[in-house]
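BUG: 3D viewer hangs when loading the predicted structure for this chain

Environment: internal workstation, default settings.
Expected: structure renders.
Actual: progress bar stalls at 90%.

Input used:
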Amino acid sequence: MSLMFKYFALGKIHYHLNRFEEARDALMFALQTRPKGQPDDFVLELLGRTWLMLDNPARAMESINRIPENRRRPYVRWTETDICCALGKIEKARQILTQGLERDRLSRHKTLIRLARIEYHCGNFEQVALHAAQADSFFREKWGNHYDEGLFWQALGQFRLGDPGKARKLALQLEAHRPYFPKLKTLMEMLGREPAHQGGVCNDGKGAGSGPDGER
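Structure tokens produced before the viewer hung:
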């Protein structure tokens, strides 16, 4: 294994342990040791997200901009849009995600949920419910099951639109589908009842259109 991959792995471990300065240093060293001709887009993406966690979105965007446009896979675009949101470029983030929907037939549901989160942040709750419903529909067509994030954001969107009955119905679907969904407890409390199975609130980092749970 090359030094680049060793230090990328080390940076990833530090990142998931919330040791962002150590992650940054390991990832920057990984880039320095990159063998000639070896793709480094995955290192740059994680370095960009690490800079974002260090409250430096400008440096984060510098990392992403080092990746050629034609090599920016969906997960790179997700990080790019998180950075755009941190820089206040909401319309640019929407544009990147919407363009990605035209080409991505595998992780389309994740892109739609990111759009839902952005719209939630902007107070566009009809769009929140719409994108979430599209994500759930795509997931069911592709894999035959409900998409838990799709149900959650649909319920949240309907609640914010003033339709607690529809929101409660969606929340109950989520509870039946995945009773230990991390954000279920928060959702049920908003709807005025406790879930049958208690769960915690998910908070996994900064990013585009953070919702009530702080998830990116």
